Amino acid sequence: ADGTRPWMTVVVDGQPGPQTPTQVQLPVGRHTVFVRRRGYDVVNDDLVTVDVPPRFTDSPLSPVDLTFQVRQAN
């Protein structure tokens, strides 16, 4: 594990989910995604909006890589 990358809780549509690094399956629609960890602040935009389009085939969507920069809180 990389000690310089703190684990964070992934919050999707206001519901806390798994911890990073992780993959989250989202249903069709618009979703808000952010990360939280006590003692750390997210740098820049801390809220990402993800639009999942309707699917007309069974082929999976390509993964969307979301990266958040964090810093230790003062």
Structure characteristics:
74 residues; mainly beta; two-stranded antiparallel ribbon; 6 strands; elongated
How are the elements arranged and paired?
Blueprint: E1 9-12, E2 15-19, E3 29-36, E4 40-42, E5 48-52, E6 70-72
Question: Could you walk me through the main structural features you see in this protein, from its secondary elements to its overall organization?
Answer:
The chain has 74 residues and is mainly beta. It is 0% helix and 38% strand. It contains no helices and six strands. It has strands at 9-12, 15-19, 29-36, 40-42, 48-52, 70-72. The strands form two sheets. It has a four-stranded antiparallel β-sheet, with no helix packed on it. Strand 1 (9-12) and strand 2 (15-19) form a beta hairpin.
Concise overview:
The chain has 74 residues and is mostly beta strands. The chain is built from no helices and 6 strands. The protein has strands at 9-12, 15-19, 29-36, 40-42, 48-52, 70-72.
Instruction: Based on Cα principal axes, name the global outline.
Output: elongated
SS elements, strand count: 6
Going by helix content, strand content and strand pairing, the class is: mainly beta
Give me the strand/helix succession: EEEEEE
The helical percent reads under 10%
Provide the spatial order of strands within the biggest beta sheet: 2-1-3-5
For the largest beta-sheet, the strand count, sense and barrel status come to:
4 strands, antiparallel
Number of helices, counting only DSSP H or I runs of 4 residues or more: 0
Low-confidence stretches: none
Distance between the termini: 25 Å
Sheet-strand content, in percent, reads: 35-45%
What's the mean pLDDT score?
84
Radius of gyration: 14 Å
